[in-house]
TrEMBL record:
<comment type="similarity">
    <text>Belongs to the free Met sulfoxide reductase family.</text>
</comment>
<dbReference type="InterPro" id="IPR029016">
    <property type="entry name" value="GAF-like_dom_sf"/>
</dbReference>
<dbReference type="InterPro" id="IPR051330">
    <property type="entry name" value="Phosphatase_reg/MetRdx"/>
</dbReference>
<dbReference type="InterPro" id="IPR003018">
    <property type="entry name" value="GAF"/>
</dbReference>
<feature type="domain" description="GAF">
    <location>
        <begin position="40"/>
        <end position="140"/>
    </location>
</feature>
<protein>
    <submittedName>
        <fullName>GAF domain-containing protein</fullName>
    </submittedName>
</protein>
<dbReference type="Pfam" id="PF13185">
    <property type="entry name" value="GAF_2"/>
</dbReference>
Amino acid sequence: MLDVSSRYLTLAKQLEAILDKDLPYISNLANFSALMWLELEEINWVGCYLANQSKSQLFLGPFQGKPACTTIQVGKGVCGSAYEQQQTLRVENVHEFPGHIACDSASESEIVVPLYLNNELFGVIDIDSPRLNRFDSSDQIGIEYLVKVLENKLSDVHF
Ligand code: SME
């Protein structure tokens, strides 16, 4: 396993403590965003975009930060590209990413991690920063680990 820094391991423990498998996924996504918003430095947006049934569009899910665009076409922007390519996209300078969708003009760098529910691609986690090159490879490893912790607690139970 790639080395997860102690910073992110501590955060993962906090996350484990607030997530609950018996809740609908929307509740866990909401608290995931809230914890990231509180604990990660130099970010101006964190949240998720979730795929529609036909997997052609992503819809805004629980988040923290300024109101954001509500739909993103799969393949468009950083979020739609990460979803389509099924891989993390770490963007050092969003102004250099072709087709970047600017929801908050303060954003300078961004990381988007695919999100799975029951082993099926379900959406993405998106984190924006007002600082260029905010996310390095160690942040990527840490954030991907946090998303794995989240996925292990996500369930599609409904009430
Ligand atoms: N920048 C994203 C859009 C979502 S906002 O950052 C919240 C993108 O290019 O897909």
